[in-house]
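Technical annex B. To support the medicinal chemistry partners, we prepared a structural model of the target in complex with 6-O-phosphono-beta-D-glucopyranose, based solely on the information shown next.
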Amino acid sequence: EHDSTVSIVVVGASGDLAKKKIFPALFALYYEDCLPKHFTVFGYARSKMTDAELRDMVSRTLTCRIDKRENCSEKMEQFLKRCFYHSGQYDSEKNFAELDTKLRDHEGGRVSNRLFYLSIPPNIFTEVVKCASKSASSANGWTRVIVEKPFGRDAESSAALTRDLKQYLVEDQIFRIDHYLGKELVENLSVLRFSNLIFEPLWSRQYIRNVQFIFSEDFGTEGRGGYFDNYGIIRDIMQNHLLQILALFAMETPVSLDAEDVRNEKVKVLRSMKPLQLENVVVGQYKSHTKGGVTYPAYTDDKTVPKGSLTPTFAAAALFINNARWDGVPFLMKAGKALHSKIAEIRVQFRHVPGNLFNRSFGTDLDRATNELVIRVQPDEGIYLKINNKVPGLAMRLDRSNLNLHYAARYSKEIPDAYERLLLDAIEGERRLFIRSDELDAAWALFTPVLKELEEKKVMPEFYPYGSRGPVGAHYLAARHNVQWGDIS
Ligand code: BG6
């Protein structure tokens, strides 16, 4: 430990993700004393910048969110002193070799570990990896590369990208981020399931009627239309974030918490699923809406989006897992932009109580009387279980109440950002929360056929007003599988 050093190279240092997420996460780790004793952070990008200018740029995004400890600004100063910048082209071996010289200077002869964070567009991943891995071959510790989606846009392009990267790296060096796996409540999912006797025995088709994975944002593509239009909501959210949560939700008990054991179970469940069918998908796109004198734009009003684009900004889907545990249970997903609220949650709807003594007290809507477990990933993290109880009083009237674990009330410490956990794991070589290439292949296998069909048939999205609850088609889709969306009913 003491004679090794980690150089963290943020490639694409002046980009949005770097400024908003990566540098602040690195600072938070530093602040919490989680970074190794010897480390340096290097920004790398094309624009000309001095170290001082990089520090100035980074400093504007750092906050002392943890608590207002007095030494925060001092810590910031110390952190910024460890930040440097190197300007270079993304495909220039020469520029990366210059970076390497600087890194070696900082490493001062210690065992040198290198972590490259590729915060850049996917079309230059391979070039950067080629140059970076060449220059890093002088390092005598490990070299790891963090990549962010998009990992291709279908099964074929994703496989091609993997092949390209593997010319220069082995699988163990590639850390594919899905930042939803770094979220506190997603990490807690396995704890909830496997450490509480009251849940795991119920976690099957025998007791669970359906499971819903819901993602909504209350803003549109806002300037990201250029990227988004080439992908759409299914690739942007479902194929990765929601599917990853589904895999953790539905997998069998892993042998241990080791990365390979957990990822083996995740990939098994993904491979037990049938590819999504066109009849089980509803797509939507937001249109302009005026409310309270304010006009909210349509998706196609975004200057970077081609006129008449059919790219979905909303999708709902029903998926099935062909195994003994989940046969016949609908797994519903819903994801959309420019909806009425910002929320990400999992809803587990349990079956009816057989021969329920109290059926009469529920009136006609028996579905409303079943238990529902809600895991709110964000915002306002929490877990609550809807149970039936008697309204106090002399009459036998039933009510639904929540057994509620509300994180803000239970824990005073702020929840770390997903990127903090993931960066720390990458530095420590913990791969459990990163996507292995076979998981990625399995995820694409599920969505590629339907994505192609949607595009070939030019399926018209259902238009929904900005700020609404999305297209009504999502209800019909759910109803065909005897499901009501829990967030609306
Ligand atoms: C990203 C998507 O992966 O996740 C964005 O590309 C989306 O479109 C974002 O806004 C949501 O992440 P979070 O952590 O803000 O919920």
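Notes passed to the chemistry partners:
DSSP finds 14 helices and 17 strands in the chain.
The mean pLDDT is 94.
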